[in-house]
Fold:
Amino acid sequence: MTATTNPAPDRAEQARDPQPESAGATEPGQRRVLGYRRQRFEARKVRRLIRHVDPWSMLKLSLLMALCMWVVVMIASVIIWSVANNTGAMSSLEDFFNDSLQLEDFKLSGDVLFRQFGLVSLLFSLGAAATVVVATLVFNLISDIIGGVWISVIEEETARPVGSPDPAGFDQGDAESGSPL
Structure:
């Protein structure tokens, strides 16, 4: 690693890129920077036109998202059921139904409820994935009529360091050797 001395930044730059003052700085207005320093990049904002969304890609994405959410909901329902069962909330709910509806033996069976809830929620998840595919097809049909949807994006691949002397990315000192930074 090499040590370089840079002039002291103004307060706004110091707040964005805080680096501690080095004890070995030679002048009060300078600081010593060791090692790699984070670069700031310029990026340009461009507009892109979306005319078509692939229904097969949307089906794969929506199925994956729906199944992940189904697993999360099933795990959460097991946790909520076990907490409610261990705290006695289920037995008091069963007693309430027995007393208010004048039933003899009303019992909530956890495994039956879990299976039914799992099946119904899985069907809802698959229905949501199918709805996303239908919405994609409708978007493609409407996009053919109106010409597409314009979105604004920031291109990061064409980003270059701020204040770079050479847009190709070569330092003036390394221009003879041809090695990039």
The helical segments are 11-16, 55-87, 89-100, 110-146. The mean pLDDT is 76. Residues 110-146 form the longest helix (37 residues).
